[in-house]
């Protein structure tokens, strides 16, 4: 049975990390559904949902650089374990809030802030663990599996959380707490693989070393910025409720299908990459899949057919997984191990900011131009970015196969 697993999962250390990512993703998505329902039920104001998201995001830009340096100075397993324990405590706090019966959104804002702190501290260390645990020849598949774990949580976590919440709200946080304990235990049982031999000074120069590395490494900078602008201007999923109700004339089931379709496509692509890494030159492939995302987005924006819309969204998820895998693998392989935490922290800020700001931009453009026009414009911009990126970042366009990449000098 073991030989049927993707190569990276045959490594006990990475299997433990993947288990932590999977159970953490399930628990997080379950709690997101429950929190959203409870917060909206208090005052029935959509703005309250946005405030909880803002509270979760605020600690990230503040703590990212210190957290990145922490991940490069201290055993990353320990940092990730501490963040995991904090998340277990957050589940316990939510259990207590639900048992008392919330009458204000303030407890949820405080929990959102705590969760943002835990994520800001733990994410750089957790992401940097993959190149510590996995040899270079299996790294691309491991990164794909890392994303697959997250996508499984996105697809199944909300459904499971909603079902449990409908039966007993307290049970959602109890089950999530158990899953988070499993995730923390898996992190604690990881081997201690890297010992920090050089103690760097704690100063501004070393604090911004990740930013300096990204700005001087054009391949890494180009890949991160392309992902930022693509999600910021091109991702249509934030407008799924509008498409479901007013364009496709459906209800919650149609909305659920639209939101799940990209993750289904991403899961398929992730499983394929995990078993057989991409054999094509990565630079040109990245630009092609971004343009394909844009084209599928345009068709989705023009579609009035539910099956066609679902297929287009699945295609966006499929090619987005390929794009993400190329970016994440290139950044991880080209970053020296001593800088993984700091570079990962900066990358995580870009990823989180693009998701949050992308939803805001989509809503603003839809209000200004109309929903369908805004989505079509976003898809056209993505094609334009893909066409221009080879001139803006020639080293990225010339990047060869991912298995040929090597770390850049510090």
Q: Measured on Cα atoms, how large is the radius of gyration?
A: 21 Å
User: Helices and strands, in N-to-C order?
Assistant: HHHHHHHHHHHHHHHHH
Low-pLDDT runs of 5+ residues are none
**Proportion of residues in β-strands:** under 5%
Number of domains: 2
Report helical residue fraction.
over 70%
CATH superfamily (homologous) name of the largest domain: MFS general substrate transporter like domains
Give the CATH topology of the largest domain.
Growth Hormone, Chain: A
Major sheet: none
Estimated structural class: mainly alpha
Account of the 3D structure:
- The chain has 410 residues and is mainly alpha-helical.
- It folds into two domains: 1-190, Growth Hormone, Chain: A; 208-410, Growth Hormone, Chain: A.
- It contains 17 helices and no strands.
- Helix 13 (282-302) packs antiparallel against helix 14 (306-334).
Layout of strands and helices, then pairs:
Layout: H1 12-43, H2 46-57, H3 59-73, H4 76-100, H5 106-133, H6 139-167, H7 169-188, H8 204-207, H9 209-216, H10 218-234, H11 240-247, H12 252-275, H13 282-302, H14 306-334, H15 340-369, H16 371-392, H17 394-397
Helix pairs in contact: 1-5, 1-6, 1-7, 2-5, 3-5, 3-15, 4-5, 4-7, 5-15, 6-7, 6-12, 6-14, 9-15, 10-14, 10-15, 10-16, 11-12, 12-14, 13-14, 13-16, 15-16
Describe this structure in a few short sentences:
The protein has 410 residues and is mostly helical.
